[in-house]
Amino acid sequence: EKKPIRIAVTGAAGQIGYALLFRIAKGDITGTNQPIILQLLEIPSSQQALKGVVMELEDCAFPLLSDIIVTDDPSVAFQDANMVIMVGARPRSKGMERKDLLLANAEIFKIQGSALNQCVARDAKILVVGNPANTNALIAMTSAPDLDRNNFSAMIRLDHNRALSILAKKIGSPISQISQLIVWGNHSPTMYADYRFALNSDQPLAYNLQDENWNTEVFIPTVAQRGTAIIEARGVSSAASAANAIIDHMRDWVMGSNGRWVSMALPSDGSYGVPEGIFFGVPAICENGVIKRVANLEINEFSKRKLQSSVDELMGERKLILSML
Ligand code: NAX
């Protein structure tokens, strides 16, 4: 019998949690031959709701799900975890300033980062989803100095998948044929969806899509505003597609991306003119559990400006929470 892998999820009773846990328990990240222990973290006021979710997980009788741990204590939730998916965050309440939201979340991710430092498996793969995701990831990583910084990432995969889908529709090609698409930067409206290197069935796609106007006036803003469009239509923010992006991000990280480029927000290493000290969406390839940035891509004047607006925004967020690092 294979040893179970421990997957911790925070904010487990939220709407993303509800779309995520069942897919994890079915094996969508780790495959159909790997038993799983779910370690679920929620705040005290959501424990009751979480109980209901756990009952439903039990009622699925998932063959791979060998145990479920439920707690409001991060150091219990993260104990020996091999993967940590940090979804729980403080939402913006009415009249709350951006700065207050940043600081409230900084507090949460500082506490949870210290707990990670103490109790996760030393090679745990950690994904931050809760917003502001890039800056929350920075705080979690900084609060866990004993862990390898390469074990931390923030999610920009939902934006990547949105861009893929919009592009496929535009050129009338199956999604599976499109590769080398990138979403750079912050998971925020400053993100930069970039198809300059994209291939359609191994042919340069930009070659057939030299409509600069569509790029700047339709493609880039539609990707960036998609989250808002979903809220307007559904009345609540994306949940199933966010959960799906989490699965894609973690599966590729653990199982490999088979040479395909995926977008991940990683601690910057100075490349592409992005200063160190922030999490930034970049193209990457995953192999044997290791994330490698795609290096040496050309950055033209337009791209440089687009990258810079995410850099400015993230450096601004960093400045606001700097005293807490
Ligand atoms: P919900 O409000 O439905 O769920 C969040 C859950 O987190 C709640 O059940 C809450 O009790 C819990 N929580 C709050 N503080 C916590 C803490 N300190 N420890 C543990 N749990 C805590 O939000 P949901 O729609 O599930 O979204 C969750 C987060 O994902 C939000 O911050 C959201 O903005 C963010 N998103 C990030 C995306 C990305 O691409 N990076 C896309 C989807 C999503 O919008």
From TrEMBL:
Record's protein name: Malate dehydrogenase
User: Which keywords does this Swiss-Prot/TrEMBL entry list?
Assistant: NAD, Oxidoreductase, Tricarboxylic acid cycle
> Cross-referenced InterPro entries, in alphabetical order?
L-lactate/malate_DH (IPR001557), Lactate/malate_DH_C (IPR022383), Lactate/malate_DH_N (IPR001236), Lactate_DH/Glyco_Ohase_4_C (IPR015955), Malate_DH_type2 (IPR010945), NAD(P)-bd_dom_sf (IPR036291)
Q: Which PANTHER family match?
A: MALATE DEHYDROGENASE
Reactions catalysed, semicolon-separated, are:
(S)-malate + NAD(+) = oxaloacetate + NADH + H(+)
Residue ranges occupied by any Lactate/malate dehydrogenase N-terminal domain in the UniProt entry: 6-151
- Functional description taken from the UniProt entry: Catalyzes the reversible oxidation of malate to oxaloacetate.
Species the sequence originates in: Solimicrobium silvestre
Does the keyword Oxidoreductase belong to this entry? yes
Q: Which residues are the active-site ones?
A: 187
Q: Which gene is transcribed and translated to give this protein?
A: mdh
Coiled-coil region: none
The family database entries (Pfam families) matched by this protein are listed as: Ldh_1_C, Ldh_1_N
Task: Name the source's superkingdom.
Answer: Bacteria
Q: Which residues bind NAD(+)?
A: 11-17, 105, 112, 129-131
| GO MF terms, alphabetically ordered | L-malate dehydrogenase (NAD+) activity
- Biological processes annotated in GO: malate metabolic process; tricarboxylic acid cycle
Domain Lactate/malate dehydrogenase C-terminal: where?
Answer: 157-317
The residues the record assigns to binding substrate are 92, 98, 131, 162
Family designation: Belongs to the LDH/MDH superfamily. MDH type 2 family.
- Under Enzyme Commission nomenclature, its number is 1.1.1.37
